[in-house]
Amino acid sequence: MKHYTSIFENSKILSLTRNGKGGPGPEGSVLVGSFELDGVEFNALNGGPMFKFTEAISMVAHCDSQDEVDHFWDRLCEGGSPSRCGWLKDKFGLSWQIVPRIFFQLMQDPDPAKSQRVMQAMMQMTKFDIAALQRAHRGE
């Protein structure tokens, strides 16, 4: 929770419940916590090391600028691994997609040739590049 709240503005830890002597985890370790990321509330349960993240659950960060894309990409990739098409796994193994909002606008263009060029450009990317998407949309 500390890691994620340090990355997203307007974020904070709301509450923590720690394990007591009776467990189920080590005494004093976090059992349940609630936190906000950019004003959206999340609850987390520490189920222990036997439960791993998979791609069956992922988070999306919608960005308004290339600076935001770069910020979230760089911070969430620290200790993690980048993938394709804006996807990455953070240092905890949680999958994220870092997506500029303009991508959806460009993809919804009524001209199918423009949206197809944007899709083709995106499929070649690791981290989203807004300027490259806009160039593809214009046919450059």
Describe this protein's structure.
This protein has 140 residues and is of the alpha+beta class. Helices cover 33% and strands 27% of the residues. The protein contains five helices and seven strands. It has helices at residues 2-7, 66-77, 101-107, 112-123, 130-138, and strands at 12-18, 30-37, 40-45, 58-63, 81-82, 87-89, 95-100. The chain has a four-stranded mixed sheet with strand order 4-7-6-5. The longest helix is centred in the middle third of the chain and has 12 residues, at 66-77. The radius of gyration is 18 Å and the shape is elongated.
| CATH architecture assignment of the largest domain | Roll
* Major sheet: 4 strands, mixed
How many strand segments? 7
Quaternary structure state of the chains depicted: single chain
User: Helix share of residues?
Assistant: 25-40%
Beta-strand content bin: 25-35%
Overall outline: elongated
Into how many domains do the coordinates divide?
2
Q: Helix-strand pattern, N to C?
A: HEEEEHEEEHHH
Q: Widest sheet: strand order?
A: 4-7-6-5
Weakly predicted, low-confidence segments: none
- Give average pLDDT, whole number: 95
